[in-house]
Every structure is written in structure tokens, then in C-alpha cells.
Amino acid sequence: MKAIFLDMKFVFIAIALAIFTQTLTTGTPIFAMGDSFVAMTMVVFLSLVAKHFIPSSLPAFAYATIIGIVLCLPETPFREWFIGSVGKVSFLSCCVPLLAFAGLSVGGKMDELKQMSWKVIVIFLVVSTACFFGASLVAQVGFSMQGLI
Question: How far, in Å, CA of 97 to CA of 100, rounded?
């Protein structure tokens, strides 16, 4: 449990940064997003607890996704509150602090990245190209089905 609370320190920082970014971009007062902070913190905490106590190879974000889906089901009593709370924060506001933390964690492993050298660039190019063409294919099929193209 100690590891969960240690991880929650970083979660608090990430969520606070997401709410601050949301305030900067939309002008929504920080105090108006208190319920958003509580909702996101609750989901992350429950996912870390699930990861700790359920023997599985699922990552914590998979548990967070499952918990979020369960909370949004029509039969749950918290649905309206949860959707209203989390809906105040845009996806981009959440991505900024997460990508910053990811960059910091990669920055600490520069020696490992140097050992991979050119292989990382090749993998990046293949993945980026595949994602681009995959998204283009899905868009083409979707627009063709709707008769827009």
C-alpha cells in the first residue's frame, strides 16, 4: 500500500497540472473543477489498488479504463456526477502533464537509448507511417460509407 500512496503523489501533481492547463485554455476557475480532481483521483487510486491486489499482467491504465467504463454505465448511481465532473477537463489538458512525465522518465534512461541507437529511429518511422496510413484507411472507409467521398 505504501507504493500506491507514493504513486498517488505523482498522480496529484499530474491531475493538478491538467486542471491548471484546463484553466489556462478555457478560463474555467480552478475551484470550479474540484469535483473533476476528486473524480480523476478516485479512478486512478482504485486502479492502482486493483493493480496491487488483483494478480494479473494488466497495466494500471487498463484498470482505470475498466473502472471508468463501469462508472459511466447507465445503471450506476454515480454516472451523472462522474460524467459531469470528468467532462469539464479536455483530453489535451490531461495529455500535457502525462507526456511531460513520460519525457522525464525516458530522459533518465539515455544510456539505454544510446545502446539502441538507429533502431529507435527505424521503429519510430515504421510506427508513425503505419499509424498514418491506418488512420487514413479508416477515414476513407468511413467517409465512403457515408457517401461524403
Answer: 5
**Which one-letter DSSP state was computed for residue 31?**
G
The verdict on 100 and 28 lying in the same domain is yes
Backbone angles phi, psi at 46, to 5 degrees: -65, -35
Residue 89: left (phi > 0), alpha (psi -120 to 50), or beta? beta
**Cell 480523476 sits on residue:** 40
Residues near 33 by beta carbon (within 8 Å), at least 6 away in sequence: 19, 22, 23, 88, 89
Q: Each residue of 51-103: pLDDT tens digit?
A: 889 988 888 888 999 999 999 999 899 899 999 998 888 877 777 766 776 67
Residue 95 has which C-alpha cell? 495529455
- Contact between residue 52 and residue 63 where contact means Cβ atoms under 8 Å apart: no
Domain enclosing residue 141, as ranges:
111-149
- pTM > 0.90: no
